[in-house]
Design goal:
The chain has 7 helices and 67 strands. By secondary structure, the protein is mainly β. The two termini are about 50 Å apart. The strands form 20 sheets. The chain has a 6-stranded mixed beta sheet with strand order 1-2-3-9-8-5. The protein is rod-shaped and about 190 Å long.
């Protein structure tokens, strides 16, 4: 039969064999999508070319894929039952997504049945965009990270597959000192690495915003992005820097001690302590310098600390060092050349009166510009130009306002920030116009008073805490702490939480101490991660509030056992498969994480050691030996799933393995026999009269056991005919005188498999002349009568002997039972396991379900099934324990099954095994299945060639 050509529409059909077809459709096409006509597409042949009415149906039992489709039972039109989403149905399948169906075609009238395999391949469309786990990521990278330094990032995921999955990544932000490297993993996952491509300098640029894009490979590519907020953290890579390397100053010899002659203002672009500048005189200079001068540690003010009038030197070279406050500070130097001027001019005298109760001036952060902080008075006893004085200050936050020729108001010129600088040292310098000009300086110390203008700041912006699940309620998990750069607020804060609605009852915080407590036991499987806000309110007026985030990561414990999906399994495997073939795979899920959620499989510890299956750790079930459906058609056993936690949890599921029949048995013909049978037919037999019935059976199942009967020579068609379905042999026409004679009819019996198995037999038919009746010969009648009398006499004598033997055996059995009422033994290896009127029989470790005549315990004293002892054991098992059909050729020696079981075979006849090692041969073979409660006659042969005949009911 020719297969049809593939169709290319919105769905694509492929016929892989004459009764196996493939439909290719794109996902997400909607419900009730027409796939095709199964019977037409499969080119189903109904036989003889005639049209018969068929009914079509989907096989849904044990096949979840079939629930996604429906079929018209009359036309065989196949439709989708719902929208098919490949990303959901084949979520973790990178290869083709194929849904397997089986459609049956049955005729309720004609004897017709066919099964069509349908495979639906779902073609992925690009309906999902790449998605990163987080859209915004905050990172810190040290500025001393060299080129090639990398930082891992989690890649994007795309529920699509193949080319529609993520194909590449790139940095969309231009002019950034970073590149991107990717490492692909199985399942479409990838690990990204952000690589430093250029030298970083926080002092040049301290923040970067980098956008990374993931693009899939669809015809219209989709893109997902993640934004990195990168902060470059500081390292101490810059020394303090003086505005000038060399300074020159001229001072009078009568300069007043403690006058500031120079204020240094070195800068350091580093942060925090790395940028805090400290000053000192270099130790690599004379002691005279350190005796006459000093420099302020933090102010950088270079002052004369002793009178210079009596000093001989007229110039000094002072080396001043500036260093930062890092753990390994960096240092720079400046040189000051001081010239001492000889003069008799008097320097101006300065008097500073601060407008506060302290020795320093005070000003609030909120003070208005122009506020007077101090009154400065200056006088010079000289006259003329020597007595003309002008004053100035070195701090732009303040200014001097002339009130009179010799008095100045020291006023605020800019708004101050206490959190930036609490103390200001202002140098007031007054200079006359004498020759040489003399100057005098004085310092005003200004303290900035605090107002509540800064909210509390938590020690961390985000607190990360790990909490084991199932901890006792009311367990403390974290203590948060806030600080405040203001000084007027109390040191304690009012702490509070802001929780999402679903977590309202999960946590609480001590408002004074900041200790956060888990009110309930947390469940990682329900809430693996919880993020909420924490707030601190200061005591200012008005009060200010600071906030931070708390992220609670719930640590897994092994509190969930694996769950089988489904709860029971059924697999089908053809018989006669080689060992180590896969039967199927178990699936189970454990909602725990890590090792606690890793699931392995095995058989239960009490599994029968003779079970022909093994379970691998990954759930794969392997057949360990060749299976024979004719011995056992179905196996039931229990499997166990266990996790890998420190205290593993387990669950079990029932597994059923059905052994599928294959055509491995040829028909067995019971009539005619292999030795040939004679059939006498009178010549006056009418046409179409049934003269015999071919009897045969097949140990296979279903269509493999459905037998057909055929004639294989011309004699059949000329005079005889055989019914293909019933095996009835009849005359096809009236017998003529010329037809009288002997005919060897060749009979073929074959099963319904493809290809079929068959067997031939020859039946000899003798057509006799009806005008010659052997019954009319008196001598023949006398001969037959004598034979009948002889047979009757022999039968009577044998019956009496058998009855006497039975009575003697029963008497001995009663004597033995009274002596050993509880002792029954057997030398066979057959064990029975009762099961509701159908016990299992275990022979050498193999379970079979076959007919048992009666159990030993309830029939031994009451029935005629007892056999004589033929061995030296205390008691031989005297019950038919197993009936086994054999189909092997004749043999002259027995097949040894065990020490107590041997099988002698006769071609095409019934052979059975009893519990004493004997072979029971049925003298009159019956049909394939024994009728219930019908007495049968058996002859038992034992390995020592002894025999015993008995009659028993086979039930």
């Amino acid at each position: 039969m020719d297969c049809i050509t593939p169709l290319v529409l919105m769905l694509v059909l492929t016929v892989t064999s004459c009764y196996e077809i493939v439909y290719n459709i794109a996902e997400e096409q909607g419900q009730d999508l027409y796939l095709g006509n199964v019977a037409s597409d499969a080119q189903l042949i109904t036989g003889n070319g005639s049209k018969i009415e068929l009914r079509y149906s989907l096989l849904t039992q044990g096949n979840r894929d079939a629930l996604l489709f429906h079929i018209n039972e009359r036309t065989s039109s196949l439709y989708t039952a719902s929208v098919l989403d490949r990303d959901d149905l084949c979520q973790f399948t990178s290869s083709d997504c194929i849904l397997n169906l089986e459609v049956t075609a049955i005729s309720p009238i004609n004897d017709f049945f066919e099964k069509i395999k349908v495979h639906v391949r779902l073609i992925d469309i690009n309906d999902n965009e790449p998605t990163f786990p987080e859209s915004q990521i905050t990172m810190e990278i040290s500025e001393n990270s060299g080129q090639g330094k990398s930082f891992p990032l989690e890649g994007a995921t795309d529920e699509d597959s193949g080319q529609n999955a993520v194909q590449g990544y790139k940095i969309e932000t231009a002019n950034v000192p970073f590149t991107l490297e990717t490492t692909d993993f199985a399942g479409g996952r990838a690990l990204l690495r952000l690589v430093v491509d250029q030298e970083l300098d926080r002092e040049t640029r301290s923040k970067y915003t980098v956008t990374i894009a993931a693009t899939d490979g669809g015809t219209e590519p989709k893109t997902g992005t993640v934004t990195l907020h990168i902060t470059i953290t500081d390292v101490n890579d810059n020394p303090p820097k003086f505005p000038k390397a060399v300074y020159n100053r001229t001072i009078p010899e009568d300069i007043v001690p403690n006058n500031v002659i120079l204020t240094f203002n070195a800068t350091d672009p580093d942060e925090n302590e790395n940028g805090r500048v400290l000053y000192r005189l270099s130790s690599h200079q004379s002691d005279e310098i350190r005796r006459l001068f000093k420099v302020g540690l933090t102010t950088g003010e270079l002052s004369v600390i002793s009178s210079l009038i009596d000093e001989r030197s007229t110039s000094y070279r002072i080396i001043v060092e500036a260093s930062d406050n890092a753990s390994q500070p960096l240092i720079s130097q400046a040189q000051v050349y001081v010239s001492v001027q000889d003069t008799h001019n008097n320097a101006p005298e300065i008097t500073v009166n601060v407008l506060s109760q302290s020795y320093y001036a005070e000003v609030s952060e909120s003070a208005a510009i122009g506020t007077v902080l101090a009154i400065i008075s200056v006088k010079d006893p000289d006259s003329g130009q020597n007595g003309v004085v002008t004053c100035s200050i070195n701090d732009n936050n303040f200014r001097l306002v002339v009130d009179s020729p010799y008095e100045y108001n020291f006023v605020l010129d800019q708004i101050l920030d206490r959190e930036m600088t609490e103390w200001h040292t202002v140098v007031v310098e007054c200079r006359d116009y004498g020759t040489p000009r003399l100057n005098t300086s004085s310092r005003i110390l200004v303290r900035v008073l605090d107002i509540n203008d800064n909210p509390p700041q938590f020690t961390k912006a985000i607190y990360y805490v790990n909490v084991p699940e199932n901890d006792a309620p009311n367990s403390g998990i974290l203590q948060v702490q806030a600080t405040d750069s203001d000084s007027i607020v109390p040191s304690s804060y009012n702490y509070s939480l802001t929780l999402p609605e679903e977590y309202k009852t999960f946590f609480r915080i001590n408002k004074n101490s900041g200790v956060i407590t888990a009110i309930i036991s947390l469940d990682r499987e329900a809430t693996p991660r919880i993020t909420f806000g924490v707030f601190a309110e200061d005591g200012g007026s008005p009060s200010l509030t600071g906030s931070a985030l708390v992220e609670v990561n719930v640590i897994d414990r092994n509190d969930n056992s694996p769950k089988f999906t489904p709860t029971s399994f059924e697999f089908v495997i053809p018989e006669n498969q080689v060992p180590n073939v896969s039967v199927g795979k178990l699936t189970a899920h454990d909602s725990d994480a890590g090792n606690n959620g890793e699931v392995s499989f095995s058989l239960t510890s009490n599994t029968d050691i003779y079970l022909p299956f093994d379970v691998l750790r990954n759930g794969t079930i392997l057949g360990t030996r060749t299976l024979d459906r004719e011995l056992i058609a179905k196996y039931n056993f229990t499997v166990i799933a266990y996790d890998h936690g420190s205290s593993p949890l387990t669950s079990t599921a029932d597994v059923t393995v059905i052994i599928q029949d294959i055509n491995d048995n040829a028909p067995i013909i019971t009539f005619p026999s292999i030795s040939g049978d004679l059939l006498y037919v009178s010549s006056d037999t009418l046409p179409n009269t049934i003269i015999a019935t071919i009897k045969a059976y097949d140990n296979d199942d279903d269509v493999n056991a459905k037998l057909s009967y055929f004639a294989e020579n011309s004699n059949m068609t000329r005079l005889f005919s055989v019914n293909k379905f019933t095996g009835q042999l009849s005359l096809s026409r009236q017998v003529s005188h010329s037809d009288i004679g002997t005919y060897d009819l060749s009979i073929l019996v074959q099963d319904g498999a493809k290809p079929p198995r068959s067997r031939f037999r020859t039946l000899t038919v003798i057509i006799t002349d009806s005008s010659r009746n052997p019954g009319e010969d008196p001598s023949a009648k006398i001969k037959y009568f004598a034979i009948a009398i002889a047979i009757s006499c022999v039968t009577i004598v044998l019956s009496i002997l058998i009855i006497l033997a039975i009575c003697l055996i029963r008497r001995k059995d009663r004597q033995r039972d009274s002596k050993y009422p509880e002792s029954v033994s057997t030398n066979s290896t057959i064990d029975t396991v009762p099961e509701q009127n159908n016990p299992d029989i275990k022979v050498n470790g193999i379970y079979t379900r076959e007919t048992i005549h009666k159990s030993l315990t309830d029939t031994l004293p009451r029935n005629t099934d007892t056999l004589p002892r033929t061995d030296n054991s205390p008691r031989a098992l005297a019950t038919l324990e197993r009936i086994k059909k054999t189909k092997s050729p004749s043999r002259t020696q027995p097949e040894i099954i065990s020490d107590s079981v041997a099988i002698w075979d006769w071609s095409e006849q019934e052979a059975h095994v009893d519990g004493m090692g004997g072979i029971i041969r049925q003298t009159r073979p019956s049909q394939p299945s024994y009728p219930s409660h019908i007495p049968q006659t058996f002859i038992t042969l034992y390995p020592d060639q002894s025999s015993f005949e008995q009659t028993a009911e086979v039930v």
